[in-house]
Amino acid sequence: EDQVTQSPEALRLQEGESSSLNCSYTVSGLRGLFWYRQDPGKGPEFLFTLYSAGEEKEKERLKATLTKKESFLHITAPKPEDSATYLCAVQAWDAGGGNKLTFGTGTQLKVEL
Amino acid sequence: DTGVSQNPRHKITKRGQNVTFRCDPISEHNRLYWYRQTLGQGPEFLTYFQNEAQLEKSRLLSDRFSAERPKGSFSTLEIQRTEQGDSAMYLCASSLGTRSQETQYFGPGTRLLVL
């Protein structure tokens, strides 16, 4: 069964203090690893998809990287508006054709002035 | 706005009542997913449609839950004889699936409270 573990559960940063969020996964065959941002009371907002080990993607202050066992979401010089829960999910190659995402429990990020 | 929409956004019901939620996917997206999310947890997969065909259902989806996607457009999720344990955020996502890649875009969710 596919599993996703995210750490830390919660992270408090000062504005400008860079850090990384971790997503460890086990999956039979990785089709894609996804990062989403979720604000309270809202649906997840898509950030990145990574498909193979060594791949990196960037968007503003966020950079996602992927290895065969884990992914990191690096946040450079965060601002208060980056405060949110960051969710990691995997999608496996499924002989039955399934396309569901398996999510971790998320990292709740709080960026303070 | 051409994103995924869900209605209603909030629903309060009494135990034992039936409820129905609607999801309108991004136009041209052929795949539609339902997930459930409880506080402090990530979304959990419930069921998946490709066009009008329901191709996969999670074991989480008890007999009280039914989903439809007539004509491959909008979808409805019905919960019969609601229980307090059904209280959660119900999320819909859609995608334009290709052989090599697929990104699911989520709607704002329907928050259900069963009293």
What count of helical segments of chain B does DSSP give?
0
Poorly predicted ranges of chain B: none
Strand content of chain B: over 45%
Terminus-to-terminus distance of chain B:
33 Å
> What assembly state would you assign to the polypeptide chains in this entry?
heterodimer
Number of strands of chain A: 11
**Describe the biggest sheet of chain A?**
6 strands, mixed
Q: How many strands appear in the DSSP assignment of chain B?
A: 11
Most extensive chain interface and residues per partner: A-B, 27 and 28 residues
Coarse structural class of chain A: mainly beta
Helical content class of chain A: under 10%
Q: What is the element string of chain A, with H for helices and E for strands?
A: EEEEEEEEEEE
Percent of residues in helices of chain B comes to: under 10%
Give the C-alpha Rg of chain B: 14 Å
Structural class, from helix and strand content of chain B? mainly beta
What is the N-to-C succession of helices and strands of chain B?
A: EEEEEEEEEEE
Q: What are the segments of chain A in which pLDDT stays under 50 over at least 5 consecutive residues?
A: none
Shape of chain B: globular
User: Which word captures the global form of chain A?
Assistant: globular
Q: Can you offer a commentary on this structure?
A:
- The complex is a heterodimer of chains A (113) and B (115).
- Chain A is mostly beta strands.
- Chain A is built from no helices and eleven strands.
- Chain A has strands at residues 3-7, 10-14, 19-26, 30-38, 45-50, 56-59, 62-66, 70-75, 84-92, 102-103, 107-112.
- In chain A, the strands form two sheets. In chain A, strands 2, 4, 5, 9, 10 and 11 form a six-stranded mixed beta sheet that branches.
- Chain B is mainly β and 115 residues long.
- In chain B, the strands form two sheets. In chain B, strands 2, 4, 5, 6, 9, 10 and 11 form a seven-stranded mixed beta sheet that branches. Chain B has a four-stranded antiparallel beta sheet with strand order 1-3-8-7, with no helix packed on it.
- The radius of gyration of chain B is 14 Å and the shape is globular.
- At the A-B interface, strand 4, strand 5, strand 9 and strand 10 of A face strand 4, strand 5 and strand 10 of B.
